[in-house]
Amino acid sequence: MSDPTLITRVVLKDFRSIARCDVRLRRLMFLVGPNGSGKSNFLDALRFVSDALNTSLDHALRDRGGIQEVRRRSGGHPNHFSISLHFRLPGGEAGEYSFRIGARPQGGYEVQCEECRLSRPIALCGESFYRVEAGKVSNTSLSTAPVASSDRLYLVNVSGLEEFRPVYNALTHMAFYNLNPDRIRDLQSPDAGEILRRDGSNLASVLGRLERESPPLKARVEEYLSKVVPGIRGFEAKPVGPKESIVFRQEVAGSKQPWHFFAANMSDGTLRALGILVALLQTTDHPASAYRVPLVGIEEPEIALHPAAAGVLRDSLRDACGKTQVLVTSHSPDLLDDPEIRNEEILPVVAEQGETRIAALDDAGKEAIRDRLYTPGELLRLDQLRPRKPAEAQFASTPQLFDGGGES
């Protein structure tokens, strides 16, 4: 089985509560830490990249309250933030995409530097690259380069070119979820149902697509859900006037046939569980690029679920990561109570004096998990899932754009 890992390394500087981090990612990763430690900020850095490319840099910043709310607040007054993603594409190409965004007076911003490098096998023309500084292309492999601008990301400008289209497609198709049971419960406006929205507000449309185009995949979701919520026998999308909803088939004591219940009558836990399963599995049987989600990020999937469902949830995560990269934030010992979780799949997150620290597991934790002395869940209960101490060498090979940059 090929490795579906898209993002292999993430380097952040001064993004929200994260002063600096440099971590390696695998096909399945658990970001583990208490509430308020900054787990969501790490996922939001990846979502920021996707949002800025899918909509615009201005929209991505405004959606988060402006650059003053995105760049880290500290006594050192950093006036910029940087994101660098190392990636591996399905076609065998590997590369890096990085940028630094700086604040300007009166809440303005500028792309101080942006760089993309994509290495292909020699038979496929070697390396493609560009570097943009202060709104001008300073170096590129392109014979004719589009004009750059200091208020937008240049990858959008070159997304129509054969060299960089695969990078753009991969980063814009990442999907991140913070599911809202109330939005799932409401009557929903129909759409094409290609990809589940962040809050689950088009879940009925996605289920309708699965019913039409991938019955085995829908059956797999139903099987998992029946284990999470005993008594559930299935579900389908149903039109309700100009809207649509989800109807569940559930066993009821004293009845030979399952009863039908609309989403409005189902619990938060059931609706979240269905949303999580669809988010994870919605595209795993679809080779078509229109349905391809190379990375799925889910915040605290265990919320509103009974602890006994943790094993089923872990199974669905393992199932999904065979076809797509999966990142999960959690502070649930039950979810991590599995000796099959490897230490390389754990990223502990802690907050120290308001600053988030994310790193690989410390040596003591690695040894305990490797030697199967404890499960990650048991270590979490003992408050022994700790990130290793920062090392200067950790950042030795980070991009040039991470150095300097006009701190005030």
Plain-language structure description:
With 408 residues, this protein is an alpha+beta fold. Helix content is 26%, strand content 27%. It contains 12 helices and 16 strands. It has helices at residues 39-54, 57-62, 67-70, 154-157, 165-172, 181-185, 203-213, 215-228, 268-281, 310-320, 363-370, 376-381, and strands at residues 7-15, 18-24, 28-32, 80-88, 94-103, 109-119, 127-133, 136-140, 175-177, 232-240, 243-250, 259-262, 295-299, 325-330, 346-352, 355-358. The strands form 3 sheets. A 7-stranded antiparallel sheet has the order 2-1-4-5-6-7-8. Strands 9-13-14-3-15-16 form a 6-stranded mixed sheet, with helices on both faces. Helix 8 (215-228) runs antiparallel to helix 9 (268-281). The radius of gyration is 22 Å and the shape is globular.
How is this fold's topology laid out?
Blueprint: E1 7-15, E2 18-24, E3 28-32, H1 39-54, H2 57-62, H3 67-70, E4 80-88, E5 94-103, E6 109-119, E7 127-133, E8 136-140, H4 154-157, H5 165-172, E9 175-177, H6 181-185, H7 203-213, H8 215-228, E10 232-240, E11 243-250, E12 259-262, H9 268-281, E13 295-299, H10 310-320, E14 325-330, E15 346-352, E16 355-358, H11 363-370, H12 376-381
Parallel strand pairs: 3-14, 3-15, 9-13, 13-14
Antiparallel strand pairs: 1-2, 1-4, 4-5, 5-6, 6-7, 7-8, 10-11, 11-12, 15-16
Helix pairs in contact: 8-9
The pLDDT mean sits at 90
SS-derived structural category? alpha+beta
Radius of gyration, whole Å: 22 Å
DSSP strand tally = 16
Please tell me what the overall shape is: globular
Taking the sheet with the most strands, its summary is:
7 strands, antiparallel
How far apart the termini lie comes to 49 Å
Which strand order do you get reading across the main beta sheet? Answer: 2-1-4-5-6-7-8
SSE run: EEEHHHEEEEEHHEHHHEEEHEHEEEHH
Count of separate DSSP helical elements: 12
The share of residues in extended strands comes to: 25-35%
Low-confidence region ranges: 392-397
The residue fraction in helices comes out at 25-40%
